[in-house]
Every structure is written in structure tokens, then in C-alpha cells.
Amino acid sequence: MTTKQEYLIRYKDGNLYCELADIWIDPSKPVKKALITHAHFDHFTFGCEEYISTKETAILLKERVGDNVKIKTFEYGEEFKINGINISFHPSGHILGSSQIRFIFAEEKWLISGDFKLQKDKTCKQYEIVKTDYLISECTFGLPIFKWDKSNKIANDISKWITNSPEKTSLLFCYSLGKAQRLLNEISQTNFKGNIYSHGSIHKMNNSYRELGIDIKDTIKIENKKKIDELKGSLILLPPSLSKGSYLKNFKNIQTAFASGWMSIRALRKRSGYDKGFAISDHADWDGILEVVKKSEAKNVFFHHGDSEALSKYLVEKESINVLLFGKQI
Amino acid sequence: MSLKKFSELFLDLDSSNSTNNKIEVLKNYFLSNNPIDNSWAIYLLTGKNNKRFISGRYLKNLFSQIYKYPQWLIDTCYLKVGDSAEVITLLLKNKANSRKKKLSNISLNELLSETIPSLSKLNEEEKNLEIKNLWETLPEDNHLIFNKILTGTFRVGVSIGLITKSISKLINIEEEIISHRLMGDFKPSIDSYEFLINKNINLQELNSKPFPFLLANTIEDKIFKNSINDFQFEWKYDGIRIQLIKRSGNVLLWTRGQELVNESFPELVEKMSHIKDDFVLDGELLVWNYKEQIAYDFSLLQRRINRKSPTRSIQLKYPIIFIAYDLLEINGRDIREVKLENRRIELEKYFSKWQNNIENNISDIFKICDLIFPKDWPDALTYKEKSRENNTEGLIIKKKSSIYSSGRKKGIWWKYKVDPMQLDAVLIYAKGGSGRRAGLYTDYSFALWKDQELIKFASAYSGLTNIEIKELDKWIRKNTIEKFGPVRSLKPEMVFEISFEKIQISKRHKSGIAVRFPRITKWRKDKKINDADSLENAFELMKKIS
User: Are the C-beta atoms of B259 and B160 separated by less than 8 Å?
Assistant: First the structure.
């Protein structure tokens, strides 16, 4: 077995790093060269000399952080070379522009899954099965208690939740980028035909999605001093950061909900402080992770971003897959 | 009517934080379902008898065995979920592919009156097979309810009071009547539900209604200008206020919250039912130290309140007493308009009559409150200061010439509470408030020193002015160390004076002590965290009092 020093990609200072190409993947601090899997803020940091991502990710990022960042872009599947390593982006199905990243060097294939999901999502490209020797996968929801319902079922639940309380204003909290647009797309297929408002941060992302050719229902940007009566029976999408502050005082007679995979657990739902939880996620559930591990044909698997102990043990015991651990920070 | 409806009811109740909302949801459920399912719903929601058919461990083992699922994986999942019935429900979702059988549309009644009880008649192998079969034929959204009923862990944030309120609204009849109807064993049946929603009130039900309680006000300085002879003085006991009714042979124990607690105190009901007269008494229920003739702590009473049909040994371990301080009705005659001093004479007269009946010894469960006779107001103060010695909270002062009106009417009854105990503590956590206080950090936790460590000892919400709350909120936002959901841990810097009513040993708390009614009485900006009290100080305080 190879030792960890010889791995093409390893963990350094809490980030994925390819020494041979001197390139970092979604680094959390400024570096020279950074590959960005997608445009969520926890995968991006200011101050890198150069960013490389898909075209969509670059557009979304610039919309969020301004034009001052230098981003080189590639199409899905388009190979580029750094220090003799072939690198390419492949759709990961997480949000618009999100990607897995494949490295090929000396006949050895490495795949970084990025954040991914297999579930259908009309607002981004479907996850692409990519064969690899080594797989580095996220495992945010790496326990068998996580099994996602179809997203149209959740959308119908949301629609019912709103229409059952016509005298209330329904506040649905969700991530501004990705989740919000997916929900809008799904909710527009349901029986709910009332007004949908969205917070500025979400509104901005809706526009970007539309410019990139994604079908997103029109929403009204929520103004601070909206008449209370006007909001009755309507849906308002807000980022979770606003759920605890004084912002809620702008509304009267509200019901609140949070759209997140964690909401499938009752105790978390109760503790969250929201009235209701909708278990919908842009990450893979347990079955999704297992499917990717199998279909990638990887002989060696690493996990990060999550509690991987049970998942690793299960793969080793039940599927005879070699699960490796990155060494502690080197 | 299917189990599905009840599953939906459960989810609706579970996902609502508003009482009015829950009442509305319940009302609609009762309206749209048949009497028998409704009676089962009430039975489950009131938790009158949550029998455990199989244990959580058994359920997990069974799942592991049927689906060849590693036990350790189920256990790992359990750590995340914290409830066996829910873990298995979530894992069953993952086994949906193995369910090819036609789904059954079983009713709540069928499930609870036939399917589940018949499980206990089967041998283990048959039982396991039947549970597997149910898992595979019940629709997915019924699994949680099914597993919870099986394991006897069905619980949802609904109190008897809430059920009472929603039925009261449904048929437009006072809550007291519904409370009375819900008292005792509730055997699910069409009859029991129809009795519950019967719009005709019978005489016995009318006889069951308590009078509105008269409540005491906090003492005001102006009272000291009056002659001490105008007032009656009693100890202020820390128990539960009870209106004890005996009419036409029936005894009823009503709390101030319109709850009937007959089931928790059967020995009192029994003794009182043998008294020949009919009456309505106002008084206090306590767990009593008969040797020293003082009340035990409120925490012992709590062991009795929530326990229905207590065993004989529980009754002996926590002996109760009812201390009457007023007589409101005697043999059908409402005497609330009679002056207090004359009501007291009647009370003493009847009590001595009852006491002298040798066939029914009531002295081991019932007495009337002793009166105190201070010479003057300073003397009253001395009595008040001594109240901790007999485990009372201070004095109750009643105007002798007053009638028994209702509510917190001014100028009739006063409470003169002993000064609170105090400790200076360090603010370590803050949590967002709700309702009017939403958006502000208004729920605080305080700590005392133990060696070099700060140990949480109390949480408090009240006591700061609105301006102070805003100021503190700003400080909290700037001095957060970590966030856990709605809770923030804070830089230890702020010292507050915390007042409370009682301090006692508690194994449930890390600090080893529990305090009652903690509240903030001063923001000690003049103090540094090293000036705050230690747990040792708290224990000393406790010693001093007991």
C-alpha cells in the first residue's frame, strides 16, 4: 500500500491539496491557485491569485462577490493540463455550475466529488457518473436514516402548508443559492398559485439563474415596509441567517419553516425553533453516496465533510471497499 | 377513517408552537373523524395509558434480524435520532424497495383495539412475523405512529388541558364540565366519546363546578397604616391551591388551573367522602411531615401531582395533607358573601364536628390552617422572617371584613413573602426570546465558580428593564464565543445578582443544586467575574436555611 505522502491529493491545513500541480480545491484561506467546485461561500475564500471553475460557477461567484476576482473557466468535460496532470470538471448535481473534479496523472485517476446529489433537479445538470481509481467523496448525510423523498412530494407538502393557513404569511427559510431556486422551480409545479416573494440575496440569484437559461418563476423582491395584508397567504423565501434576528418583526401572523436535509430528524426539527421542517437536500442521502461509490468503481475511497465512521465501516464490512483515511494535517 | 388521518394530526400538532393553532387542529380532527377513532385519539393524546407492547431494544433487534442490518449501524443512527421508534421508521424508508405487498388502510380503532393487543397473544416467532407484515403493509407515513404505539412512547406536546379546551370549543360548553367528563379512566368507545361531546349538562356536572378562586396581591406599604386587628394572619404554604368540593356525595379536587386532580390523591378523596356534610373548601395541598408538623418541600409534592393512581407505598412515602383556610359553601348554602371572620367561625365549628367523628379519623389528612396573632406590624415582620423555619414562604394577610370575591381583587388578601435569597452569578449563555421578545437575546443562563471553573446553576428571563435588555443584547452579539443553534456561549464578563425562593440539592443538575423562581434583581456592573459567588457559597446558603 502506498503511504499517504505519495497520494496525488492529500489533506493539508484542513484543505484538499495537489502538491504536484500546486493547486488547492475549495481552499479556506488565500492560496496561489484554487479550483472551486461551486459557488457556495463555504467553498470560496477571498484573496487567491487565481481561481479555476466552471463557467456557471464563475458567473454566480462574480454576482456574489464582485468582478474583482480572476477566474479562469472551463466547460464540463473539457480537459486542461497543469504540470502534466489532466484536470476536468464534471456535473455534480448540487447546484447550478457545481462540479466534481477529476485528476488524471500517470494512468491514475482521482475524483473529488465536491458537494453532490443524484436526485433530479431541473435547475442544474444531473450528476454524471465518472469512473475513477481514487474517490474523495463528501458524506454530509452518511447514515441510513437519511433517505430523501422525491422533491415534488416535498413541494406539494410546502404548497399544502401554505394553503392550509390562508390567513398567515408563510416564511420559508432556505439557502439563497441553489436550494431557493430549486424550491421555486418545484413549487411552481404545485397547486400553490399565490404570490411568492424573495429576499434580495435570493432575488439576485434568481436573476442570475434566469440569465443562465434556467426556468425560475417570477418572484417579487420583498421590501421592508410591505403592507401586512398584502402578504397574507403568500410565500416568502428568506435566507436562514434572518430567522433569529429582529428581521421577523417586519411581519405579523407568520408561520415559519426550514428546508434542509436535517429536518428529517424530529429532535433537530423541534430544536431548530421553526414551526415546520421540510427535509429536502442538495446533498446525497445514504443510498446516493453508496451508489456513487459503487458506480465510480473506485477501489479506494476517502470521505470528508461529514461523519464518515459508520459509512466507512459499512463499506469495508459489507461491500469490501477499501476506505482510506487522510492522515492528520501534515 | 384511516390511521393516516391520525398520523397527519400528529404531524400537525408536532409542528405547531401555538396553543390556539393546536386547539384549532384538534377541533377540526374531531369534526372530521368518527366517534370511535376520536375516542382513541383522545386516549392516545392524553397519555392515559401508554402501554408498552415491546421495548425499543426489541424493535431494533427485530429490524436488524429481519433485514440483515448490522446492529452497530442501527445503534449509531440511534445516537443521532434519540428515539428507537423513529430510528426504525427512518430506516424502514430505506427498505421501501422490499415492500411489494398491497398497502392496508387500517383504522386507528382497528389498530388499537385488535391488531396491537392481539400481538401479545402470539408466540415470539409469530409476533415478529406479524410486526414485519405490518411494517410492509402499512403506508410509510403511518410507521412512526405505529412504532411509537408499539413501544409505548407516543407523546406529543398536547396536555389534557388542551384537549379539554378544544372539546369545550367544539361543543360550546365550559371547560370545567369537560374536565369533569375527562376525569378518571377513559375507556375508548363510541359511548365514551359521545358522553364527552354531549351538549346536555346534567345536575351532577353542574354540581361539580368550582367557584372562581380569590387570589392574593403582593403587599403594599399602605396596609401598614391600618390596625393590625383588622386582619387575619396565616402562613403562606408552598403547595398547590385546591378547591375541595363535596356535593351530593361526590368529592372533587380542583386546582387553580381548572384541573381535576382526584386521580393523584385518592386517599384524600376517600377520607373526605365519608364526612356527612356537603361543603366547598378553599385550601392548600402539601406533602406533610406529620412528626414535626411542617410541610415538606414542593419537590416532594411534584412526585405526587403527576402520578395517577399512586400505590399504597407511594402514598406512605409522600403523605399528603389538605389544609383548609376557607369555607365557601356548607350543605348547599353559598356563604361567600359572609364576612371572612364569620366564615372562619363556621369553618372551625364544622371542622371540630368532623374531627370528633370517631368512625372517620380525618386528622391524618385534613386540618384547618392555624392562625397567627402578631401584636403589631413589626411583630408581623418577625413572624414573616421566621417563616423559613417552618418551610413556608411568608404570610398571607386577609381582611377580616372581606367577602370571598373572585380574581386578584385589591385590598382583600395580601401575600407578604419572605425576602428572596440571592447570589451574584456570571452570565455564560444567552438564547433568543420568543413572542414579544423575538429577535432579542432575553433568556440567560448564569454560572457560579467551582475552583477555576464556571458551572451553570440557573436560568432566568425576567428582571431586566427593556433598556437593559437592549443594551445586554448588543453586548451579547459582540461577545459570543460559540453558537449552538439559538444558544450563544458568551465571554464570561457580566455579573448579575440573581434572586430566588428556594435552594436545594439536585442530582439532575451539574451544579448539584436547584433554585426555584430565579430572577435577575440587579445588573452588577460594579463587579468583576472574580467577585461572583461560588457553588460553595450556594451550599452554605442552603445549610443556613435548613
Answer: yes
